[in-house]
Amino acid sequence: xxxxxxxxxxxxxxxxxxxxxxxxxxxxxxxxxxxxxxxxxxxxxxxxxxxxxxxxxxxxxxxx
Length: 64
Ligand SMILES: [Zn+2]
Known about the structure:
Helices cover 0% and strands 33% of the residues. It is mainly β.
C-alpha cells in the first residue's frame, strides 16, 4: 500500500519537514538532507485517498 507521509527530522535543532510517498518500509530510515538525522513519520495518509491536508506545516517538498 502506498502512503503519503509527513516526515519530521528527529533532530530537535532541525526543523526540516518533508512529504514522502511510498510504502511504510520505504518511508522508514530516510536521512534528513539538512543534517543527516533520521526522519520520523508523524502522519500517514493513504495516497489514493489523500484528499485532505495531513498537516498545516509542510515545507517545500524535498522527499525523494
Ligand atoms: Zn534534519
